[in-house]
Write a structure and sequence with these properties.
Elements (H helix, E strand, L loop, with lengths): L9 H17 L7 H14 L6 H12 L2 H22 L2 H11 L6 H16 L2 H18 L4 H16 L6 H10 L3 H27 L14 H15 L4 H18 L5 H13 L2 H19 L2 H12 L2 H20 L2 H18 L4 H16 L6 H13 L6 H4 L4 H16 L5 H21 L1
Length: about 450
């Protein structure tokens, strides 16, 4: 293990300074393309530590990029993008939204918007896409009632962030699972048990605020259950433990069949929609490759060991380690305003910490995904709130600011609070100790059986 050195973190520091600095100077947090920032950071990493030959550095980088978890993550990113593109083109998004809204009682429309947002975001795997889809509907509810527009849009954002860290095809979920080397099904169960209380409390709050309001849907909401089937196939398939590649490919094939049979697109148009979906994942795919390379060089230069030692210094046991990773992931998300990039950057370090403290990978994956999503969900300069405010302002007659939505973002805040409580009340037994206890119980049972 390389000796811990703060200077080993220089590539990451350079990236953050560039990313934040250009954003502050230009007034646009996204002015510096993340890919360019990471390329510069990679160059810095290669220039460090002249004691290691350039050829050896290339071997380290190739080993990092060729890791089976990284390769799997990249393939899943692409397939997920293809599925999202083709299922949207087949009318799955519109049908799912209309189906959800058509079965909700009028006096529970804001609660319904949150619940529909939860389902849509779990199905689509994108919080921004969910917000873009539901924001105009939320504006319509606000205009037809006396309800606050920021509150209605807040319900949309809350629902969108629910699925952002649960969806089987979300880039954040894929990154968290693959960087920690755990099964998606196991991570989902662990994650779901933590966020469910936060979702229930959010429903209660919105119900208390809006139960007396009334809203009548002006138009008949048309939907086709057939168009919803691809989402259900992917969701159920992933939950029962079918291989993620099989699930996504099956969803793509079913979406193609549904789209062509319902006349949503022709056979030749189908490939264009698939390509558009895959293209939407190119940036995060390239970033993941570059970050994997940077991580190997940072590790070789002692940067990773420095962070591990720092977390060990300020934490006591498994709970402290998880809190430390949560804090680090939130900090990176605040700096990058992108929770997927935050997970990709902190995931390998979280894996090292998890192995050091013998923490189950599914727990570490949940910590990464939950806390970065919680932070992303309340960032006024994040893509989610900017999209919500822009989409609402385009439909409404008033200009809505992301800051106005903040007081109604109950779910992201509750999600973080519940996650901290879950970490604090979780036992400190390691998976090795648990297995040891099981083995001892088996031995005791054998002894008693022989004595009998």
């Amino acid at each position: 293990m390389p000796k811990a050195k703060f200077v080993g973190l220089l590539p990451i520091i350079v990236f953050l300074i560039l990313f934040i600095g250009v954003g502050v100077i230009s007034g646009d947090i996204y002015a510096m393309p993340a890919v360019i920032g990471f390329i510069i950071a990679l160059i810095v990493a290669f220039l460090q530590n002249p004691k290691i030959k350039f050829a050896d550095k290339l071997q380290l980088v190739a080993k990092g990029i060729g890791d089976d978890n990284i390769v799997t993550m990249l393939f899943v990113f692409i397939l997920s993008g293809v599925f999202s593109g083709i299922v949207k083109a087949s009318g799955g998004v519109e049908s799912t939204v209309n189906f959800g809204l058509s079965i909700i009682p009028p006096n529970l429309m804001v609660v319904g918007i949150f619940i529909v947002g939860c389902f849509i975001s779990v199905s689509m795997g994108t919080s921004v896409g969910t917000i873009s889809t539901l924001a105009p509907i939320a504006v319509g509810i606000a205009n037809a009632t006396e309800l606050s527009l920021p509150m209605c849009i807040g319900a949309v954002v809350c629902g969108a962030m629910f699925g952002d860290n649960l969806s089987m095809i979300s880039d954040t979920t894929i990154a968290a699972v693959r960087t920690q080397g755990c099964n998606m099904k196991d991570k989902f169960k662990t994650n779901f048990l933590i966020v469910l209380p936060a979702a229930i409390i959010t429903i209660v709050i919105f119900f208390a605020l809006t139960s007396k309001a009334n809203f009548v849907i002006p138009n008949n909401l048309e939907y086709s259950f057939v168009k919803i089937l691809p989402y259900l196939l992917v969701l159920i398939g992933a939950l029962i433990g079918i291989n993620v590649f099989v699930v996504l490919i099956s969803g793509i094939v079913l979406s193609c069949i549904v789209g062509i049979s319902t006349g949503m697109f022709t056979f030749s148009e189908m490939f264009g929609h698939m390509n558009a979906g895959a293209s939407s994942m190119y940036e995060i795919t390239v970033i993941s490759i570059i970050v994997a390379a940077i991580f190997q060089l940072v590790k070789a230069n002692g940067g990773v060991q420095f962070i591990i030692n720092l977390i060990k210094k300020f934490s006591k046991g498994k709970k402290g380690a998880q809190i430390g990773i949560a804090f680090m992931s939130v900090l990176v998300d605040l700096c990058t305003a992108n929770n997927t990039i935050a997970i990709v950057m902190t995931g390998p370090i979280a894996k090292e910490i998890g192995d050091e403290y013998d923490i189950e990978p599914k727990k570490m994956a949940s910590v990464l995904d939950i806390f970065t999503s919680a932070a992303q969900g309340v960032l006024p300069y994040g893509a989610q709130l900017l999209t919500a405010a822009t989409a609402a302002s385009a439909v409404a007659s008033i200009q809505l600011s992301p800051v106005e939505i903040l007081p109604y973002l109950y779910y992201p805040i509750l999600m973080a609070v519940v996650a901290v409580i879950a970490i604090l009340i979780t036992g400190n037994k390691s998976k090795k100790n648990v297995q040891k206890e099981v083995n001892n119980e088996v031995l005791d049972a054998d002894v008693k059986l022989k004595n009998f």
